[in-house]
Amino acid sequence: MILKKLKRATALVGVLVLTTGIFAGCSGGTTNKPSDANKGGKDDEIVIGFSMDTLKEERWQKDRDTLMARAKELGVKILIQAANGDDNKQIAQAENLISQGVDVLMVAPHNAEVAATIVEAAHEEGIPVLSYDRLIKNSDVDVYVSFDNEKVGELQAEYVTKLVPKGNYVYIGGAPTDNNAHLFRKGAMNVLKPLIEKGDIKLVYDQMSKDWQPSEAQKHMENALTANKNKIDAVICANDGTAGGAISALSEQQLAGKVPVTGQDAELAACQRIVEGMQTMTVYKPIPKLAETALDVAIKLAKKEKVETNGTVNNGKIDVPSVLLEPIVVDKNNMMDTIIKDGYHPYEEVYKNIPEDQRPKQK
Ligand code: GAL
């Protein structure tokens, strides 16, 4: 701890010089300025560093905002940096947080393998590492807090195979660098495989999307439609961003709203597409619950207290102690009882394009 305070003091000097640059330069960097952290010099103050891959998707902005609000409520400091999908930048930002002497480092990695170096660097300074939402592979990461990501894939495939028990299927996955993308796909294949073996379902196209880019997903969907002369019966997209891309390609062929498409993240645009009938479902992962759980665990790590976990996830090196939360299926029928009831998105915005007399009544 003393070493950390010393580090924090010296880092403060360094950061004060730097801050003007980083703060101004990096749109993804949001920090409670270290100077604040030391205002009043409360030694027992817990400082948590959070190294994020990106703020590109709506959900990550929610993670950032919820974590900052919750940290304030709990009286802990949180320093957040986002690397915009750049591995070298994420490593540099994480090393910067480590050099500032944070008590715990949370990491949502861009690249599950590359981020292992961050765990090593943090452990060299005695700083525990929490893998946030996405797992860091092949490392001695201390704890993993996320949703049950394999179940996300199972829920997507279960939903769409009930609607379309037979036919030509397309799978559009997420970023190959993201361990979650592989868990989502594994879950979906758990459900599809027996139906494929029975010959009921034919997986005519199956590709991952670099950096979760909707434009990649749109290209995949266009290729699948061309290769199968538009004879596509269902599409499993790993998240709402890729679903949006696939639906753009389907609408070019006047198939949007006719071919079921899954998603994930309950983005506002996806919730609108769902109530308008363009997207079939999404998997809702209440981000405030994830942020609050991760902060509770991080504070326990900082205080060297025992962390309650509800499972482990193997990362190729160890069985990482994990806290996995439940994902929730959302479609047109339960939008009011989930997204609207939780205040995740405002009623007026979700039903924006639905005539007032056709909207479900607010309770
Ligand atoms: C995954 C995350 C999803 C989705 C995706 C794109 O790791 O679990 O919720 O947002 O990244 O950023």
Automatic annotation (TrEMBL):
Subcellular localization, as worded in the UniProt entry: Cell envelope
A cellular component term, taken from the record's GO annotations: outer membrane-bounded periplasmic space
PANTHER family for this protein: D-XYLOSE-BINDING PERIPLASMIC PROTEIN
GO biological process, one term: D-xylose transmembrane transport
Protein's recorded name: D-xylose transport system substrate-binding protein
Keywords recorded for this protein, A-Z: Signal
GO MF term (any one): monosaccharide binding
Chief place of localization: other
Coiled coil segments of this chain: none
